[in-house]
Structures are given as C-alpha cells and as structure tokens.
Amino acid sequence: QGLKPLAPTEPPDLIIRKSKPAPALPAAGPYLNTNKVPDLQKIFQRPDGLPVYLKLGYSDKMLYRTTMALTIGGTIYCVVALIIASQPKKQ
User: Fold this and answer.
1) Membrane spanning segments where (predicted)?
2) Is the Cα dihedral 39, 41, 47, 49 positive or negative?
3) Which residue from 23, 39, 55, 56 could staple onto 60, CB 3.0 to 4.6 Å apart?
4) Around Cβ 56, how many Cβ atoms within 10 Å?
C-alpha cells in the first residue's frame, strides 16, 4: 500500500502580501470633543469636604441613596429568607 511521510521534507514558501498603509486620520473630526479632564480635575480636587462620589451634585446623591437603599433592602430580605428557611415545616 505504501507509506507516506508524516511531515513534508521541504518547508513551504512564505507568502508575504504587501498591504496598503492605513489612511491618515484627520487632525480634528466631528467625533472628537474637547478634553474635559482638566475641568473634572478642578471639580474633584476642590477642598469642600465632600467625598469624591458625591461631588457632581444631585444625580450623584440620588445614585448613592438608591444604591444604599437597595443594599439595605437586600440585606433585610436575605435575613428574613434565612430565618424562614431555618424554621422547621409544620405538619
């Protein structure tokens, strides 16, 4: 039947394709906005005694309060579920 070699004896020729260079991006496009980092740094580094997560105003306060309410509610729910699960079933 004949046996074939497992690996080719000569390595295959390398195929190198020349690709087109990437197109140059415009210096400023409509999708580029101004850099807001310096303005935000001024807001966050202001020594007003507020924690960083509350410095942007009303929306930050509402997100913080919502998160705390959900956390407390979830903790209470878990404790009640554990108490109910620990009680034996009445027959």
Assistant:
1) 62-85
2) positive
3) 56
4) 14
